[in-house]
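User: Here's a chain of 218 residues. Predict its fold as tokens.
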Amino acid sequence: MHSFARVLAAPFLLSGALVAPALGQFSNPESKTTTVHNAAPLRPPAGARVAIVEFEDLECPDCARANPVIKEAIEKYHIPWVRHDFPLPFHTWSFQAAVDARWFDTRSKRLGDDFRDATFAAQQTIHSQDELQVFAQKFAQDHKLVFPFIVDPQGRLAQLVKGDADLGQSVGIQHTPTIWVVTNRTSGAPFVEVVDRSRLFTMIEEAQAGSKPVTGSR
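Assistant: Prediction complete.
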């Protein structure tokens, strides 16, 4: 996990949209946990007992390393994965990549997530917004879509990304990726931050054992 210092104390203008300031990644994540100021987002979606909530940056190398681990977990345990954008302001193309992913979301949420996964897998080959544009066009073509040259002319998708970044700021995000296993518990520890990804499966199993049955479930 790369280590970064605080880079800005004021909002940052990137790709035509206002992005909240952020810290970077901790060099020793096991010694750091997030001080949560707003726990409202750290709940499973309606009808779910346990979920993974993640704040991610598509240009973040450690997010790319975490991505297949989380994918394996959700496929094994069949739990929701709530992904939030948190593009760090010193990454040159991450905000635009998040906007591009939102464009694919408008076709289907599955396609948007597939684009995010593909971006992480190809991350080391993307070095600029121009290269990102070529990558997104190729991804669209492979899925029989035409990717527009101007993907977000009204700025609506950028506002969705900024909304996620603002949400992360309200939670208290300090680094990417920030990952929680969250439950529908109303007492005890309804959410726990994943600082050691080798324990993710165990943490999910513990959360499932301690969560409440969903109303109406057998």
